[in-house]
């Protein structure tokens, strides 16, 4: 799944037709519990799941899977140049780094020429609205152009969660500066079958404003 709307890679084929994934090396960045890598392995691909969080990778290990789990920073990938055919990230890494271009350049470095990188993030327009699923979440409450990061702190004042806002234009410029060509921008519509409601996600909001932006990029 590329996001809360429920867009499935089987349907979307953003990484390519599933039957063509067999034998291809794929890096999942910000893998969390490695759900995407697990699906890729089931298609016959050779995934590597990378995340900065050791705890997340421990959870992935408990779930199981016959692919490598790597604890590392997405801005300093521990792989040789041209190690992978494809890379993907579903709501991983990129929203949580202050310099996404560093990550993009690293991803480009480890991809082979012509390699594809597909990543999804919260749609930038969502930053202008309150994180509420009901009618109160439909009125603009802040500037779309305010790039102040969202920060949560513990009792000692240490940042425990940070998410960075980039506009759509920022994302496109980051992709180009990272050495990629943007070949598609997918904004999944909310499907009728999805009745889920959590956080700021709901059919009400999903039918009116986009929630996810998926960038399909290719290495030059």
Tell me what you see in this structure:
The chain is built from six helices and nine strands, in the order H-E-H-E-H-E-E-H-E-E-E-H-E-H-E. The protein is an alpha/beta fold. The protein has a single domain, classed as Vaccinia Virus protein VP39 (Rossmann fold, 3-Layer(aba) Sandwich). It has a seven-stranded mixed beta sheet with strand order 3-2-1-4-5-9-8, with helices on both faces. Strands 6-7 form a two-stranded antiparallel sheet. Strand 6 and strand 7 form a beta hairpin. The longest helix is centred in the middle third of the chain and has 11 residues.
Question: In a nutshell, what does this entry contain?
Answer:
The chain has 220 residues and is α/β, with parallel strands linked by helices. It has a single domain (9-219), classed as Rossmann fold, CATH 3.40.50.150.
CATH fold-level name: Rossmann fold
Parts with pLDDT < 50 across at least 5 consecutive residues: none
Overall pLDDT level: 96
Question: What would the principal axes of the Cα set say about the shape?
Answer: globular
Q: Which series of helices and strands comes N to C?
A: HEHEHEEHEEEHEHE
Strand order of the largest sheet: 3-2-1-4-5-9-8
